[in-house]
Request: fold
Amino acid sequence: MSAPKRYNAEQLMNIVLAPIVSEKSTMIGDKLNQVVFRVADSATKPEVKAAVELLFKVKVDSVQVANVKGKEKRFGRTIGRRRNWKKAYVCLAAGQEINFGALE
Reply:
C-alpha cells in the first residue's frame, strides 16, 4: 500500500509519534476496534489516516483527534508547564488489527 498522491511518504512517517498504551486505550481497543496514537501537533485527520494506513498496512474507517492541554507542574517555588500535545483515536475497519508486538 503506497501513500496517497497528495501526501509525501517521508512526511507521513513523521505524523504518528507513538502508540498510547493505557487502561483507557486498551478498553477502547477491545470494545470499539480503535487504536490511540500520539501524533504531531500539526497533523490533520486525513494525514493521520494516510499515515496509519501506510505504516501498518491496515484499512482505517475514521479518525477522531483531541488536543491535550499540558499540565501545570511545580519545581520548588517556580511553576512550569508541560507541552500541549495531540492524540488521535483511529477506528479500524472490521477485521483489521494492529499487532504492536510484531513490530519489535
Remarks:
- The chain has three helices and six strands.
- The longest helix spans residues 45-56.
